[in-house]
Design brief:
Methylamine Dehydrogenase, Chain H, alpha+beta, Alkaline Phosphatase, subunit A, 649 residues, seven-stranded mixed sheet, elongated, 10 helices
């Protein structure tokens, strides 16, 4: 359609690390903001939209909605996950992140935003604790009470808007994410990022009144009071809950007695059978409350649902920028979409049914996902029984260079993930959870002190677990060396260290003697694997071995030993360095090409897809399901020649 083509602009991908073959081409017009816009708030008169930018330079952007132009940008010391206007529009509140504070601003009718006070809610900013982080904020309908999420202490703080004093501390579920006041101001809803639940609490006591079990990682909430005739007004409100670790939005009925009942599950996936990966993270209602707009972060799209009847229906998709984090409806019914990775705002006119059909076609064309998608390795896959997956931290040196020369050179490896924690999660789980995407930039910038990105954090669990949990569920044997393990020295002069597994799923499959960068524990186990079958652990090697390395010499010793073992003819080693400094990927096996180049574009998903094909594992997300495998790097006739490591000077 000619009218549609004028609304669609291509977006340059510089600075954006999307999975291979996933593209971004947002509809509408684009307004540049600062890095990582996460939260949005519309002024009560509808004349202004505020965007909280939580990237390397936290700030709040002021956008005048008539012309959708940024009129001001106010720097803030830190930013959390929340932004809210007072009911009269004269004040603005923002979560202060690791400053352990709520930031208050004055806001004039002309759109002038000025910092007024910083409301400390605990230790001052000069004494930042590891677990200090204020996320979402909400203001009561009468404007007298501000609620703030104390994320890592699993509580909500009640603050007097007049005095700035804390008037209550209320326990919540694990990792409270979003706060939403009931319209009567006598209770509030909280989504629990780690508990797959939504809670309702009374005021002023903070006592739990009700809870509803929904999908994993519930985030944004919105209420609709539109009545549906055939429902006979059973429910006073419908509460829409985005569950980011699923493809779903859950619809919860709120009765006059404030009981919560899950009414239906709305699938926002590209198909009903699609694995997780849409990451629905924000919701908004049309003015007449017949349409629900859902920001699907990892799919780079806004899903549109018809909610006019008792059963909701997915109506289509609108292409957005990279990683949309918030969607709001502004004057004229236009959509305002914050794009976290693009660092901008997408403005989209309300789509007609015909336009939505065309937008949907475009959104589907930008993703490689197809229900019938299939990829396979050559027939040699059946000969490989063991996969060794080595994750390197900035490893370069003579062995890495020699291995690239002697085996296949993968010349077009571009890892997904804008931060090291995101890249690591893509390499292990085929997705970076929303917790990582939203908080890792603050950690990388040195503001957030809590490293919850390498196991143990309940809000950072990926949708289908990790590669090792996938293998264990398939009945395969697994061994881990150094991943998600914390080594702590014990008291005394012997220098002995005690290792602690940070993720429960690694219990029992982790070698606690392994100390990177010394690979001796792995080499000792390899000798044990080669021992006669009658001995302990002898005669077998695990199907999947995961190793973390930080030294080139250790890489060389491991490949040398494995290639000279009796397991080499049935083994493949993938060694990946997904750091931004020097990304590299090695595929090492008798069945990979020797002294040859492969220019095919690959990323972490390509490696995971290849491992899954070799070990007959199910894909974990929509991304490894639709990823291109490393089939071009393999050959049918094996070359069992071993590798001889380069010794350090």
């Amino acid at each position: 359609m000619k009218v549609l083509s004028a609304l669609v602009l291509a977006l340059a991908l510089s600075g954006q690390t999307l999975p291979v073959n996933w593209r971004v081409q947002p509809a509408g017009t684009q307004v540049a903001l600062d890095s990582l816009p996460l939260s949005a708030a519309v002024s009560p008169d509808g004349k202004f939209l505020l965007a909280l930018n939580a990237g390397s330079r936290p700030s709040i952007s002021v956008i005048e909605t008539a012309g959708m132009k940024e009129t001001a940008r106010v720097a803030v010391a830190d930013a959390g996950l929340g932004l809210a206007f007072s009911p009269d529009g004269r004040r603005v509140y923002a979560g202060g992140g690791s400053r352990n504070a709520v930031l208050e601003f004055t806001f004039s009718p002309a759109g002038e935003l000025k910092a007024s006070r910083e409301i400390s809610v605990g230790q001052p900013a000069s004494q930042v604790a590891t677990t200090n982080f204020i996320g979402d904020v909400a203001v009561s309908p009468d404007g007298r009470l501000v609620l703030a999420v104390d994320l890592f202490h699993d509580r909500v703080l009640a603050i007097s808007a007049q005095s700035g004093q804390i008037t209550g501390t209320f326990k919540t579920g694990r990792r409270p994410y979003r706060i939403l006041f009931h319209p009567d101001g006598q209770s509030y809803f909280v989504s629990s990022w780690a508990d797959a639940s939504v809670y309702e609490y009374s005021l002023p006591s903070g006592t739990e009144m009700a809870r509803a079990r929904v999908g994993a990682h519930p985030t944004d909430l919105i209420l609709s009071n539109r009545k549906i005739p055939d429902e006979q007004n059973k429910w006073q409100y419908r509460l829409f809950v985005a569950a980011a670790n699923t493809n779903d939005v859950f619809v919860v009925g709120v009765s006059e007695g404030k009981e919560l009942t899950v009414l239906e599950t709305l699938n926002a996936g590209f198909s009903a059978l699609a694995p997780a990966g849409m990451t629905p993270s924000s919701v908004a209602l049309s003015a007449d409350q017949t349409r629900l707009f859902i920001a699907c972060s990892d799919a780079n799209a806004v899903a549109v649902a018809d909610i006019s009847e008792s059963r909701s229906r997915l109506a289509g998709f609108i292409p957005a920028g990279a990683y949309p984090t918030a969607v709001r409806v502004v004057t004229g019914g236009r959509l305002a979409v914050l794009n976290g990775h693009s660092g901008n705002l997408t403005v989209i006119d309300p789509p007609t049914d015909d336009m939505l059909q065309e937008y949907t076609r475009m959104a589907m064309a930008l993703t490689p996902y197809r229900e019938s998608f299939s990829d396979s390795l050559p027939e040699q896959r059946s000969s490989i029984e063991h996969v060794i997956y080595i994750l390197m931290d900035g490893v370069s040196g003579p062995n890495a260079a020699k291995l690239a020369r002697e085996f296949v050179r993968l010349e077009n490896f571009h890892p997904a993930g804008d931060t090291p924690p995101a890249a690591l999660n893509w390499a292990l789980a085929a997705i970076a959870p929303d917790f990582t995407e939203r908080l890792a930039p603050s950690f990388a910038a040195g503001r957030l002190r809590y490293n919850g990105f390498e196991g143990g954090e309940p809000a950072n669990l990926p949708p289908a677990g990790y590669l090792w949990s996938n293998a264990l569920s398939a009945g395969l044997s697994v061994r881990n060396y150094g991943l998600f393990v914390e080594n702590k020295p014990t008291a005394g002069a012997d220098g002995v260290q005690v290792a602690r597994v940070k993720d429960p799923s690694l219990q029992g499959i982790t070698n606690m003697k392994y100390r990177d960068p010394d690979p001796q524990a792995f080499l000792d186990d390899l000798k044990q694997f080669e021992a006669p079958s009658g001995t302990t652990s002898g005669g077998t090697m695990p199907n999947l071995i995961i190793v973390r390395l930080s030294r080139d010499a250790a890489l060389g010793r491991i490949v040398d030993a494995v290639s000279k073992s009796r397991f080499w003819p049935q083994t493949v080693i993938f060694a990946m360095d997904s750091s931004a400094q020097k990304p590299a990927l090695l595929a090492l096996s008798p069945y990979t090409r020797r002294a040859a180049a492969d220019p095919t574009p690959y990323d972490q998903l390509s490696v995971l897809r290849t491992i899954e094909l070799i070990l007959n594992l199910r894909p974990m997300t929509v991304f490894d399901f639709s990823a291109r495998s490393l089939a071009a790097a393999f050959v049918s006739t094996p070359n069992n020649a071993p590798y001889s490591s380069e010794q350090p000077n």
